[in-house]
Amino acid sequence: MSGAQRHALSSAAANLGREFGGTFNTDTIERFLHASYDQFAAHSTVPNFLPLLAERFARQRLRALSKVEGNAHDGRPTVLFLCVHNAGRSQMAMGFFEYLAGDHAVAWSGGSEPGREVNAAAIAVMAERGIDISKEFPKPWTEEIVRAADVVITMGCGDACPVFPGKRYLNWELEDPAGKDPADIRPIRDEIEHRVRALLTELGVPARG
């Protein structure tokens, strides 16, 4: 780890401390931050962005843990989209969910075997709908994130997907967009949009458009 990365991690720890200091102690915050950093460092091709990715993922994990422990719950439904690489289907689903639900619900995504980057063709076809998922990144699922979700949507990860008793699961059978060109991904994208809209209706969440 370079000196610049250490400085960036220290800044990230300070940011998280200001946000979660009233809920978690410094050791917990730093443990989640450094664990997140290590998860991405193992396969990242953009080391300069590792501290930022680690901060973003640690923030998500701490919010999830806070909800699981009953320290924070604003009443909004939380949906977790899971696939194998968290590079295509689950990223598109999260993109549609966040765009359509706005501030009325929360969406997370993860993968059983996270890839190195989000599928470029998936980014392109989502941009055709005015939805930017280019700043997203493949990430693993963690226990607290799964436990904090109200609904877990699985897409092709099979037995590798986490199962917790009492948790509501839905399995969406969708083609994997990996290796496909935009023309072949558009039908997958459109099916994902249809399913996300139906899910929002079921959850009683108003959808834009």
From TrEMBL:
Keyword flag Transmembrane helix: no
Residue span, Phosphotyrosine protein phosphatase I domain: 77-202
Alphabetical GO biological process terms: response to arsenic-containing substance
Domain of life assignment: Bacteria
Statement: the UniProt record of this protein carries the keyword DNA-binding: no
SUPFAM superfamilies per the UniProt record, alphabetical: Phosphotyrosine protein phosphatases I (SSF52788)
UniProt-listed CDD domains: LMWP_ArsC
Annotated keywords: Arsenical resistance
Pfam families, per database record: LMWPc, Phosphatase-like_N
Protein name: Arsenate reductase ArsC
Naturally occurring in which organism (per UniProt): Amycolatopsis rhizosphaerae
